[in-house]
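Hey team,

Filing this mostly as a record. A colleague (T.K.) asked me to run one chain through the structure pipeline before their review meeting, and I want the input and output archived in the tracker in case anyone asks later how it was produced. No errors, nothing strange. Just documentation.

Input sequence:
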Amino acid sequence: MYEFTVAFMSALLVGLVVTAVVLMRRRRRRRWKRPAPTVDDEAIREILDRGVLEADEEEPLDLGEIEEEERRFWSENWDEPEEL
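Output structure:
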């Protein structure tokens, strides 16, 4: 019975390690497949003409929304700790 338990636990541990390695490699591959942002001549002209470069972001930050959430967070009333 002892040998079976040791073998089972060893197999389980090896399985977990293999799964972790596979998931880590998959995550690294996805990260490397993303195309690197490029700045070409047209982008440089836009920076020189307008002073800014507008990039296509998946979800650009809404600074007004961030400011509102921060203001709301800090304006909350916090419960005082209970005295023991």
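Quick notes for T.K.: The longest helix spans residues 2-33. Residues 2-57 form one domain.
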